[in-house]
Amino acid sequence: MPTDPATAPARRGTLFVLSAPSGAGKTTLRRAVLARFPDVVYSVSTTTRPPRPGEVDGRDYTYISRAEFEAGIRDGRWAEWAQVHGNYYGTSARTLREAADAGTDVLLDIDVQGARQICRRFPESVTVFIMPPSFEVLAERLTRRGTDSPEAVQVRLCNARHEMEERHWYRHVIVNDNLETAVAELAAIVASYR
After folding, report:
1. What residues does each domain of the chain span?
2. Phi and psi dihedrals of 182, rounded to 5?
3. Superfamily of domain 15-192
4. Cα gap 10→33, rounded to integer Å
5. What is the pTM assigned to this prediction?
6. Given this model, what pLDDT does residue 32 score?
7. Beta-carbon neighbour count of residue 2 at 10 Å?
């Protein structure tokens, strides 16, 4: 059935895929950009893990059963998904498609593996990789945070090295050396596609 031009959105929504190694400042940049563009929707992931204290269903994650998630895998419901520490995490393909069709821009905060899956399903996605100024600065940030054991920091650094090697296939790379500059760069990228 053809779409009524009077009710069709002026343009398709854009999927902005943001990836970075742990400690590069991705969450801070995401929050700043969402504050600048209040009509951009943040994609809430779905998980099978139980909510942590203070987490709210639909805001932090959408919580579903393992059986429901696995049915979604079989049905091709996930634009991207992974199993991490025994729990599933994923992004609904239907939600992303409906947002794009409605002309709504969506920001996804996902890892490199998930970003590749999203781009296979939605090749028009705008991918942005956030880099730390250097590997040494990243190590210092992760250590200074004090939220992980030294062993966990080493695992994060090992993962970061592999993730940073994947930055070449992203459309845009931002080095988060100065937060104000990085926010301005990310905001300019988002604005240029809107």
Report:
1. 15-192
2. -65, -40
3. P-loop containing nucleotide triphosphate hydrolases (3.40.50.300)
4. 22
5. 0.84
6. 95
7. 5
DSSP state of 4: P
Instruction: Quote the radius of gyration of the chain (alpha carbons, Å).
Output: 17
CB-side exposure of 84: number of CA atoms within 13 Å?
10
Total number of residues shown for the chain:
194
Structure tokens at 36: 């600048």
* 179-192 helix and 26-36 helix, angle to the nearest 10 degrees: 50
Residue 108 · residue 43 · CB < 8 Å: yes
How confident is the prediction for the chain on average, in pLDDT?
90
- For residue 19, give the H/E element and its range: strand 15-19
- Per-residue model confidence as pLDDT tens digits over 168-191: 999 999 999 999 999 999 999 999
Residue range 112-170, pLDDT digits in tens: 989 999 999 999 999 999 999 888 888 888 888 767 788 888 888 888 888 999 999 99
Tokens at 132, concatenated? 């730390």
SS3 56: coil
